[in-house]
Amino acid sequence: MLSGYRIKVDFNLKEIFGSSPPALFVGRANYPKVRVCPAVPPVVGDTTLYDKPELWGEMPIEKILDFRYSLIHGQFIADVRNPRSREADILQEISLYEKPVELEVIFEKPPTPKVLFDDSTPPMGPSAPAKDVRICSTPKAPRVVEEVYESTDLGAFEAMRLLYEEGIAVSHIQKLLSAGALGVRRKLVPTRWAITAVDDSISKQIIEYLKHFENLDHYRVFVLKEKSNLFMVILTPQTWCFEWGEAWFPQTTWNFGNEMFIETDWEDHRGRRTYASLGGCYYASRLATTEYLRKIGRQAGAIVWREIYPGFKIPIGVWFVREMLRKCFNQKFIEFNTLEEALDYLRGFSKAGIDNWVKNSKLIDHIRGQKTLWSFL
Predict the structure, then answer these.
(1) CA dihedral over 234, 330, 68, 4, signed as positive or negative
(2) CA-CA distance, 100 to 41, in Å (whole number)?
(3) pLDDT per residue as tens digits for the range 223-256
(4) pLDDT (mean) for 331-358
(5) Do residues 63 and 154 touch, judged by C-beta distance below 8 A?
(6) Who contacts 336 (Cβ-Cβ below 8 Å, separation ≥6)?
(7) Sheet strands (E) in the chain
(8) CA 138/CA 223 separation, integer angstroms
(9) Does residue 9 surpass a pLDDT of 80?
(10) Contacts of 365 (CB under 8 A, 6+ apart)
(11) Which H helix or E strand runs over 124?
(12) How confident is the model at residue 11 (pLDDT cuts 50, 70, 90)?
């Protein structure tokens, strides 16, 4: 997966000028005093692709890594409880824009060619402690973003809803939350937490819409094979419930053993009260699923499973799940009259084995235990 990538960076530099996508990072180590990092590549021009997962769906992983490795992060230390520090001000201004921002960063020492990987955030390129950062020029921010930023009496939850309804990309909302640009009691939020918080909050709001829709009247199945992954979705004719499952094969990101393992987590119509055991991917997959159901104007149960095959070894962030499922829901689907027919169809795709999935699925048991209209037809 790493074959062919190159880091096009001069590691002797002590300052850098370029067009930030815009990009920023807030760490979580040593919370509440954390690293805050504006990021910029040594490139001037349209660098939007460097930090916008919504545009990565058709892109080879190697190309995405090229972009990520080219972003140089200037590290500052900030207290998350002080949203008016200079470092926070810089991050907040960067977060307002959809188009690239010209930045100059002066480092205390040259950046080291070290790359950081995380299961929630996209790969993070080279970094170094910085002495100063200057915003040299900016585009115009979207009007709704400016309005929300200036509305200090608007809660973060409502701000996210408003931005999303006005078409602001999820990745942009995540940056705004992370930079402390949303809400009444504003503070910096570690990027990892902000990503999941936005996926969770927006999907919860969509679920409340779904509960007013009629149920889907058949079983609808989607399949997507992409980048050493398989995504399988069964939408069921019932009220909202959801399951996310992952099957990790040996020699993949989180499984260096010799046996494949499957994990699942789920929620019923009442929703969750605890954090999902499968972390950020649960909420990213739930968001993509609720977006589709809202689009078709139906509520349904949703069984969403992912198989990760050997060779997929780099943690690249939960954006991958969100964008792959968005892509999956744009594919053609097949309809069935029963759950068993839908499962039988998926036997032709699953390498983990549908029987293994069913054995590990809590939502399948829940669905089989319910009586629906289909039970009497």
Answers:
(1) positive
(2) 11
(3) 999 999 999 999 999 999 999 999 999 988 877 7
(4) 97
(5) no
(6) 218, 219, 220, 221, 342, 345
(7) 15-20, 23-26, 33-40, 72-79, 101-107, 127-137, 219-226, 229-236, 241-248, 261-267, 301-308, 334-336
(8) 42
(9) no
(10) none
(11) none
(12) low
DSSP for 286-311 reads: HHHHHHHHHHHT-B-EEEEEEEE-TT
Angle at 326 between CA 323 and CA 330, to 5 degrees: 140
Burial class (CB in 10 A: 0-12, 13-18, 19+), 259: exposed
Peptide bond into 22 cis (omega under 30): yes
Q: What is each CA distance from 201 to 52, 119, 170, in whole angstroms?
A: 20, 20, 11
Task: State both tokens at 336.
Answer: 């069935």
Contact 251, 260 (CB under 8 A): no
- φ, ψ of residue 317 to 5 degrees: the values are 105, 160
Q: Of 275, 303, 283, which Cα lies nearest the Cα of 363?
A: 303
Q: Which of 194, 165, 166 is nearest to 182 (CA)?
A: 194
Cα–Cα dist 180/189, whole Å: 6
And the tokens for 67? Answer: 């972009």
**How far is the C-alpha of 46 from the C-alpha of 21, rounded, in Å?**
7
Distance CA 35, CA 2 (A): 27
Using DSSP bridges, classify how beta strands 301-308 and 241-248 pair: parallel, antiparallel or unpaired: parallel
Amino acid at 31: Y
**What pTM value is reported for the model?**
0.93
CB 318 within 8 A of CB 117: no
- Residue 98 C-alpha from the chain's centroid: 17
